Amino acid sequence: MSNPKRNFIYNIIYQILIMVIPLITAPYLSRVVGADGVGIYSYTYSIVYYFMLLTLLGVNNYGNRSIAKVRENKEKLSKTFWSIYLFQLIMGITMLLLYIGYILLFDNKYKSYATIEILFIISAMLDINWFFFGMEEFKKTITRNTFVKVGNVILIFLLVKSSGDLWKYTLIMAGMTCLSQVILWSFLRKKVNFVKIKFSDIKKHIKPNLILFIPVIAISLYKIMDKIMLGSLSSVTEVGYYENAEKIIGIPMTLITALGTVMLPRISNILAKGKNKKVEEYISKSIRFVMFMSLAMCAGLVAIGYNFAPIFFGNKFQKTGILIMMLATTLPFLSFANVLRTQYLIPKEKDKIYIISVSLGAVANLVMNFMFIPRLASIGACIGTITAEFMVMFYQAMSIRKELPMIKYIKSIIPFFIKASIMLIILYSLNFISMNNVLRLGIQIIFGCLLYGLLNVKYILSIVNINKIINKLKKKKKVEI
């Protein structure tokens, strides 16, 4: 059986490759193509993203869960994979044709970029990450992403030299995404056999896929629709500010996403074996860990956000600093809800609660966006996102409070909240001391990590299990003697 701790580390690397490597190029792109260029790419990608969502529907969660349940039986595994994938392929071909129709009939302003982004839909048609996640085989995705993402960075620095090269950047992002999916297929042949699939085999997956698609589309309304609304109700420049702020917030979320991706198939498999007490133990430990991390990251980003943005992205992106500070407050809400969703609601097939929660979040976000984006532009989009993330977390927690000890969880994270607040006050106060901005930022980051680490040294030692490490070292020393 695979090791969840090792898979967690693998998936952290996977998520970091997705988020951090593009972030390496962000300061360069912000200066080369400018806020308008960043905004145009973000706006056009936001549109093609909806066609990608419709290709995959709820398969990322549903496929992951389904594969985890049958992975020990190759015959069932093969049948499950092909029946789910054929459904995905049919949806992909349909969405590809509809997107081409959209380009021909509606998209005139950014038609060249939209045409290149057809490759994104093809990549969604080929996406079988859900299979390997269900198998708890994360190393393969790391190997693939290392190759592809490093290639991304090299090509961007070599080929994108001016604002006129935005089409090249679009082609690199879409083409390399497609290539990454093609590579993953080479690992599949040893895992499953090709089996004949009837329409009835595909049909049984349609309803559960559609059910899990509802929260996916609802989440997209306050993750992606923000940018479309900003581009329509304000300007692509404001989309550029918002896009870069989201990139920064996405970095700390890699840890949380990694944990959820690893634990979903693990808990689905445990539940299939009837080990409910083990599930509660995992959830309790996970909530403490993600809140320990997210509260620190929230405090740190609020403290440094305003000065960080112009240093990192350039002086034209000062407003991005304000957006980073605002969006950082969503990290604790996102983290808490992520554990409840991936370790309880989805594995236990409590899809109704999940659907209602994200639907409420989507409605709240759309209302706030219509109210505030026309007046406050990207700041208004942040208000909508903060409201949405809180609503999702609150509804999920309230809905399962009789099944899981929510009060116990909240009490366990209060010490982390207090220590993160202390760190925030000290780091923020450094903003008022006259010194070089780059030097101040470096001091804040290093001092913040050391301070929070010292304040939580007891918890950190309990995570790494220092006693176990000491015993291993003692045994090794005895062997050497």
How would you characterize the overall build of this protein?
The protein has 481 residues and is mainly alpha-helical. 84% of the residues lie in helices and 0% in strands. Helix 2 crosses helix 4. The radius of gyration is 23 Å and the shape is globular. The two termini are 34 Å apart. The C terminus is likely disordered.
Structural class by sheet pairing and helices? mainly alpha
Terminal Cα span? 34 Å
Order of helices and strands: HHHHHHHHHHHHHHHHHHHHH
The fraction of residues in strands falls at: under 5%
| Total beta-strand segments | 0
Mind telling me the C-alpha Rg?
Answer: 23 Å
Characterize the largest beta sheet: strand count, sense, and whether it forms a barrel: none
Global outline: globular
Low-confidence stretches: 477-481
Number of discrete helical segments: 21
User: How much is the average pLDDT?
Assistant: 86
Helix content: over 70%
Question: Can you give keywords for this protein?
Answer:
481 residues; mainly alpha; 21 helices
List the helices and strands and how they pair.
Elements: H1 4-32, H2 34-56, H3 59-70, H4 74-105, H5 111-116, H6 118-126, H7 129-134, H8 139-159, H9 166-185, H10 199-223, H11 225-233, H12 236-272, H13 276-313, H14 318-327, H15 331-345, H16 351-376, H17 378-399, H18 406-429, H19 437-455, H20 457-464, H21 466-480
